[in-house]
C-alpha cells in the first residue's frame, strides 16, 4: 500500500492535526516518461504552511491533494533512460511513501553523504543560507551579521557561514536554551531570545556597532527592531517571513519601511533559492567540504515515521526543532 497524508482543509489560524488526513491507497504504476520513487526522507519547511495561504512562488495547495513537500527517495521502477532502480533522487512529490512522476520533476543526487544531510544542509537549506548570505547579503570581514530563526535549518547555516566570512554574528531564537546553544556550540558571538521581550534593546546591546547585514527569516518584530539598528548602506536579505505564516491574517509590515530604508540607504532584497540553481553544484561541493572538514556543523532534527509528519510541522512553528527538521519514512 501507499501511505499518504492529504491536505484536508485550510486551517483557521494555526495548523492542527485536522489540517491533514491519512490515506492508504494502491502504489501507482509509472506511465511512459515517469519514474516510481520510494520516499526516504521528507524535508519539513515553514513554506509548507505558507503554501496554504494562496499563490506564492508556486501554486497554492488545494484541499484533497497529497500534502506537498520536498523529499528525497530512491527509484524503484523507471520507464526513463538515465533513471535506474536504486538511484537517489529529490523533488517535490509530497508526504507519501511512493509517487510516480515525470522524470523532469526529479533531480538525481550523486553527492555522497548521509540522507539527513542531503535533505537539508547539503540541499535547499544549505543553498538558501549560502546564496542568500553571500550573494544577496554580501558580507565583508568585520561586518556584524544578524540572523533571525538562528537556531533553525537556514539560520544555523547562515550564522556559521558568516563566521567563515570573518563576520561578527548575532542570532535571535526563541528561548534562552537555544540562545546558549548558539553561542556555546555553533560559534555565534551573541544571541537574543526574542520571546523574552524588549527585543530592540537586547539587540542594541548585542550589536554595539550596529548591523551591516540582517538575514531575515522571520519578518515581524525582529525585522522592525533590526531596521532601526541597521548601519548606513546595510543589506537586509529577505529570505522568509515565518512569524506570519501560521496565522489567519498576516500583520502589516514595519512602520520604518520606507522611512529608514531611505535615510540609511538600505538595500532590502528578496530571493528564492532556485534563482541560483545554475551554480548549485559549485555551492554544494563547497558546503560539503566545510561540513566534512568540521568547519560547519550540519545540525539535523529527524522525526521517525511518516505518520508523525503533521505533528512535526506543528512542532516547527512551536520552535521544537534545532537545525533542519526532517521526517524519516
Ligand atoms: N527564500 C528561499 O528560497 C527560502 C528557502 C528556504 C527557507 N526559506 C525561509 O527561511 C526561513 C527559515 O526556514 P527554515 O527551513 O530554516 O525553518 P526553521 O528555522 O528550521 O524553522 C522555523 C523556526 O522559526 C521559528 N519561529 C516559528 N514561529 C515564529 C515566530 N512567530 N516568530 C519568530 N520565529 C518563529 C522557530 O524557532 P524559534 O524557537 O527561534 O522561534 C522555528 O524553529 C523561513 O522563513 C522560510 O520560509 C526561504
Element pattern in H and E? EEEHEEEEHHEHEHEHEHEHEHEHE
CATH architecture title of the largest domain: 3-Layer(aba) Sandwich
CATH-defined topology of the largest domain: Rossmann fold
Query: How many alpha or pi helices?
Result: 10
Overview of this protein structure:
Strand 12, helix 8 and strand 13 (267-270) form a beta-alpha-beta unit. Strands 3, 4, 5, 6, 7, 14 and 15 form a 7-stranded mixed β-sheet that branches. The two termini are 14 Å apart. This protein has 10 helices and 15 strands. The chain is α/β, with parallel strands linked by helices and 329 residues long. The structure holds NADP nicotinamide-adenine-dinucleotide phosphate (NAP). NADP nicotinamide-adenine-dinucleotide phosphate is lined by residues 45-47, 124-125, 128, 149, 151-155, 173-174, 178, 217-218, 220, 239-243, 271-273, 316-317, 319, 321, 325.
Set down the secondary structure blueprint.
Layout: E1 2-7, E2 20-25, E3 34-43, H1 46-50, E4 70-78, E5 88-92, E6 98-102, E7 107-108, H2 115-118, H3 124-137, E8 144-147, H4 153-164, E9 168-173, H5 176-185, E10 190-193, H6 199-206, E11 211-216, H7 220-229, E12 230-238, H8 259-263, E13 267-270, H9 280-292, E14 300-304, H10 309-317, E15 324-328
Helix pairs in contact: 3-4, 3-9, 6-7
This protein binds NADP nicotinamide-adenine-dinucleotide phosphate.
Top keywords for this entry?
single chain; about 325 residues; alpha/beta; Quinone Oxidoreductase, Chain A, domain 1; Rossmann fold; six-stranded parallel sheet; binds NADP nicotinamide-adenine-dinucleotide phosphate
Amino acid at each position: 500500500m501507499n501511505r499518504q497524508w492529504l491536505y484536508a482543509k485550510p486551517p483557521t489560524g494555526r495548523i492542527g492535526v485536522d489540517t491533514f488526513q491519512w490515506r492508504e491507497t494502491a502504489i501507482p504504476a509509472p506511465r511512459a516518461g515517469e519514474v516510481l520513487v520510494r520516499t526516504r526522507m521528507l524535508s519539513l519547511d515553514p513554506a509548507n504552511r505558507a503554501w496554504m495561504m494562496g499563490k506564492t512562488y508556486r501554486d497554492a495547495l488545494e484541499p484533497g491533494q497529497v500534502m506537498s513537500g520536498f523529499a528525497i527517495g530512491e527509484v524503484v521502477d523507471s520507464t526513463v533512460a538515465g533513471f535506474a532502480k536504486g538511484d537517489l533522487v529529490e523533488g517535490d512529490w509530497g508526504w507519501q511513501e511512493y509517487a510516480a512522476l515525470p522524470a523532469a520533476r526529479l533531480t538525481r543526487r550523486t553527492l555522497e553523504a548521509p540522507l539527513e544531510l542531503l535533505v537539508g544542509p547539503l540541499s535547499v537549506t544549505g543553498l538558501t543560507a549560502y546564496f542568500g548570505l553571500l550573494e544577496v547579503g554580501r558580507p565583508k570581514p568585520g561586518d556584524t551579521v544578524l540572523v533571525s530563526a538562528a537556531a533553525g535549518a537556514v539560520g544555523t547555516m547562515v550564522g556559521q557561514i558568516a563566521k567563515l566570512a570573518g563576520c561578527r554574528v548575532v542570532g535571535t531564537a526563541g528561548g534562552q536554551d537555544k540562545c546558549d546553544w548558539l553561542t556555546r556550540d555553533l560559534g555565534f558571538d551573541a544571541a537574543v531570545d526574542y520571546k523574552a521581550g524588549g527585543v530592540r534593546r537586547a539587540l542594541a546591546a548585542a550589536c554595539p556597532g550596529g548591523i551591516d547585514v540582517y538575514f531575515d527569516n522571520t519578518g515581524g518584530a525582529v525585522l522592525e527592531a533590526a531596521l532601526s539598528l541597521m548601519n548606513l548602506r546595510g543589506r537586509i536579505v529577505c529570505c522568509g517571513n515565518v512569524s506570519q505564516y501560521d496565522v489567519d491574517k498576516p500583520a502589516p509590515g514595519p512602520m520604518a519601511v520606507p522611512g529608514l530604508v531611505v535615510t540609511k540607504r538600505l538595500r532590502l532584497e528578496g530571493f528564492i533559492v532556485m534563482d541560483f540553481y545554475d551554480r548549485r553544484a559549485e555551492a554544494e561541493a563547497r558546503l560539503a567540504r566545510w561540513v566534512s572538514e568540521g568547519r560547519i556543523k550540519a545540525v539535523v532534527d529527524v522525526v521517525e515515521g511518516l505518520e508523525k509528519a503533521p505533528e512535526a510541522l506543528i512542532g516547527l512553528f512551536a520552535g521544537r526543532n534545532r537545525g533542519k527538521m526532517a521526517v524519516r519514512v
